[in-house]
Amino acid sequence: MPKMKTHSGAKKRFRKTGSGKLRGRRANTSHNLGKKSANRKRRLGRPSVISEADHARAGRMLGNGDS
C-alpha cells in the first residue's frame, strides 16, 4: 500500500513543538521594513504558533496522521 508523502513546502515552513503545536514564520517581514520599529521587526523574526484555523490543514500537509 502506498504511503502519504509529506508536502515538501510545508516541511520547510512548519515545525512541530514538543507539545504538538505547529510553529511557523510570521507575516509582514519582507518589505516596508523602514517604517516598522526595531522592536516590532525583532518580534516578527521569531516564529509564532500557527492559528487554530490553519492547524488542521498544515498538520495534514505534514502527513503525521494528526490534524
Question: Any overview of this molecule?
Answer:
By secondary structure, the protein is an alpha+beta fold. The protein has one domain (about 10-60): Factor Xa Inhibitor, CATH 4.10.410. It contains three helices and three strands; from the N terminus they run H-E-E-H-E-H. It has helices at about 10-15, 40-45, 50-60; strands spanning about 15, 20-25, 50. Strands 1-2-3 form a three-stranded antiparallel β-sheet. The longest helix is centred in the last third of the chain and has 11 residues, at about 50-60. The two termini are about 20 Å apart. About 5% of the residues are buried. The model has no long low-confidence stretch (mean pLDDT about 90).
Note the main sheet: 3 strands, antiparallel
Order of helices and strands: HEEHEH
**Sheet/helix structural class:** alpha+beta
CATH class: Few Secondary Structures
Distance linking N and C termini: 22 Å
Total beta-strand segments: 3
Lateral arrangement of strands in the main beta sheet = 1-2-3
Instruction: Please name the CATH architecture.
Output: Irregular
Tell me the β content. 5-15%
Multimeric state: single chain
Shape: elongated
Number of domains: 1
For this structure, the CATH topology is: Factor Xa Inhibitor
Count of runs of 4 or more consecutive helical residues: 3
Radius of gyration: 15 Å
